[in-house]
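To whoever picks this up:

The parser on our side crashed when reading a file containing two proteins. I've narrowed it down to the boundary between the first structure block and the second sequence. Both blocks are reproduced below exactly, byte for byte. First block:
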Amino acid sequence: MSAPATNGQPLLSDRELEVIELVAAGLTNQEVADRLELSKRTIDNHISNILSKTKTENRVALVRWALRWGKVCLDDVNCCTLPYRSPQASASEMLTD
C-alpha cells in the first residue's frame, strides 16, 4: 500500500530517498546494498516499494521522476536538501567514495 501523497508527491522515507539518490548515481542494487550495509534483498524490496509509491515502471522512469520532483541532485543541477545528506555529498560524489 502506498503512502498518502503530499502536493501530488508520495511520502517517501529518508531511507527510500537515500536509495533513490544512489540509484540516480548509477549504482546497481548490489552496490546500493554494499554502500548502505544492507542485504541486496532489502534494497530490492525498497526499490519495489519506491516504484509502487512513485507509480514508475523502472529505474530510468524513477530517476526522471526524482529529477522532476527535486528529489536528487546530479552534478549540481536540480539540487535539493534532503534530511539525510551531508552538505558536501552529491550523487556524482557518491560514485567516487
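<<boundary where parser fails>>
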Amino acid sequence: MKRSMGAVEAAKAIEGGSLTAEAYIRGLLDIVAERDGPVQAFIHLDAEATLAAARTLDKGPRRGMLHGVPVGVKDIIDTHDMPTGYGSPIYDGHRPAADAACVAGLRRRGGLVFGKTVSTEFAYYTPGKTRNPHDPSRTPGGSSSGSAAAVGAGMVPLAFGTQTAGSIIRPASFCGVVGYKPSFGTINTAGVKPFGMSLDTIGGFAGSVADIAFLVGALSGHDFLSGLDKPAAPRIGLCRTPQWPDVEAGTEAAFAEAETRLAKGLAPITLPAIFDDLAVEQVSVMAYEAAAAYASENLYHADRLSDHIRDLLAKGDTVDGVAYRAILGKAARARMALAEAMDGLDVLLVPAAPGEAPVGMATGNSVFNRMWTLLGVPCVTVPGLTGPAGLPVGLQLIGRPGEDARTLAAAAWLEAQLRG
C-alpha cells in the first residue's frame, strides 16, 4: 500500500522550508478521505482544527525535533482538546482536563495530534470498529487497532500505541508496519488509562524503523537515529520460544524464509525452563493489576463492561498478593537468565504473532508477546513478509532491557534485508 512521506523526511523538509506543515497535513487528510471509509481507524478527527494548528506552527519559530510532524493518538491516551473515551461507553464524551505526558511532550516539541485512533475497550480484547487496511474482512489486531491501521493505510506517518500484553507488536504484524514497544518506562505513562501498572508501555507504529526511532527518541531524550542509515549486521539468535506450538502457517513460513535469507547471521537458541510458563503467568499479573485499576468501573458500571473485561477482573480477584509478587520475582530472575542466554548476541528473532490477521473482528492471540512484555524488554516488529493469503506477517526482534538503541539498529538492518 502506497505511503505518504515519512516522518523523518517530512521533518527535514519542513525545517528546510521546502514543505509546510499545512501542506503536509492537507495531503494526509486527502488520503484519509480516500481510504478511511472501509478501515475506520479514527474515532475523532477534526480536520479544520488540525489544519489551524499546522498554520500556527508554520507562522512561528521551530519548536523542536518534531515540528510539523503529525501523530495519531490512541484513544486510551488523554488529550485536553479532544474526547478521550478509552474505547468504553462509560466514558462517552469524556474530555480530560490535561494532556497525557506523551501528548504534551509531542506538542512541546512541535508535533501535531492528528486525531484519536480507535482502541479496544480499555485497551483489552473487545474490538472497536477498525478493520485491517489490507483486507477489511480481517482484524487489524488490538488493542492499538486504529493506530496500526492508520499507519498501515498510509493515513498518518506515526501513531502512538500502548502495550500491556501484545497491543503494539501483534497489530503491527497484522497491518504490515513497524511496531516498537520500548523498554518498560522509556516514555512516561501519566495520562494513559492504566491497566497493568508493571506492564503498561507506550510505544508506536511507523512505516519505517527510522521513523519510530525518531519519535520515541525525541520524546525520551535518546538518540536512537544514529547509525540507522547504515546499520552493521547484528548477531541474531533464532528463537522459536516455548509458545511455538501455537504458530500458524504464515509465521512458520516467515521463519523458514528468514532462516534461508539470513542463514549466515543466525544462531539457534533455546530458552531455559524458567521461560516456559511466563506467558501464562503474565495473564495473572495483568488480571491482578487490572482488578485494582478498574475497581471503580466494576463497582459502579459493571453492566457497561464487556464480558471480556468482567471475566479478567474476576480472575484478578482470585490472584493473591503472595502469588503476584512471586511471579514478579520470577520475572526478575528470567531477565537475568535472558542476559545469560543472549551472551554473544545482539537480539533474538522470535514470532510477532501466530500468523496472518484472522478473519473477523476478534483481535488475535497475544501468546507470542505476553512473556516479553512481562520482562519489560524492547520489542520491534519488522514487516516485509507475507503469509499464504498474501497478507503481512512480521518478525519480532527482542533486545535486553534498556538496550533499545541496539535493538532498533538490528531492526533497521533486518528491515533492509527484507525489503532488499
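After patching the parser it read the second block fine. The chain has a mean pLDDT of 97. The CA atoms of residues 274 and 301 lie 39 Å apart.
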